[in-house]
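Q: Structure for this?
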Amino acid sequence: MDVVVQLQRQLADHTASLFHEGFLNDQFNQLQQLQDESNPDFVVEVVSLFFEDSERLLNELAKALEQQAVDYKKVDAHVHQLKGSSSSIGAQRVQGVCIPFRNFCEEQNIEGCLKCLQQVKHEYSLVKNKLETLFKLEQQLIAAGGSFPTL
Amino acid sequence: MFGKGASSSKSMEIIGSEKKFSVLIVDDDPIIRKIHGALVSKFTTEIQEVKNGKEAVDLCRSGASFDIIFIDKKMPIMNGLEATKELRAMGVNSTIVGVTSCDLSSERNDFIAAGQNQCYEKPLTIEKIKSLLSELNKNN
């Protein structure tokens, strides 16, 4: 099979699975619509900012929840930020865990908070891998001389 | 739908005409600044960005003026509500639009009471900006 056609099919399947499995929502489509000739790397740039921000926040959260006297206000502020940045790129499974996480902060429930931290780390690493695969497929397709398939 | 002040705002005279309108984006989150900047760039090229309410107030105090100011609620140093009050006290008549990741249903009154014309949940979308521009034109 022609390499370009094969890559286009792989990319279309991978993208569809990201939405179908709920990793991404329509907000990610919105970002893709903003990418144009004047802004060719827009999606990669925004998602890279999301990776940087999330990793910083996840480290801060782990540190804050290790303390003897947990500052729940601080934990909640970090989770609020993570909810905002995940919602901005459409990473809805990460965003989804932030909702019970904030409730556990309000209840000052350490077990609940620690459980949510593990869940949000897991969801973040899944969506990060999926997005990296997506960008890699796009690069391969461009290198092979193809263009993005229309979903 | 719009709070007090919208009908007198400077943007009324400009949006929909040939002239480009100017926009200030105020948000501490670099992801939001980037997304909102790209969204607004679909409508105008006159865009500035600052990281908190104090920077917005300082910019306007130094003589800069904008047709529309999109402002976040939760920001360090000076939040969006404080900044809006300060801007209105200075006589700034831009259309000020609150953009928040908080629950809008419970906070809309705070935004309007502070002097904002409209508020949206984050993130902005092309549809939300189109609807804002169409409301501004309707009120013109």
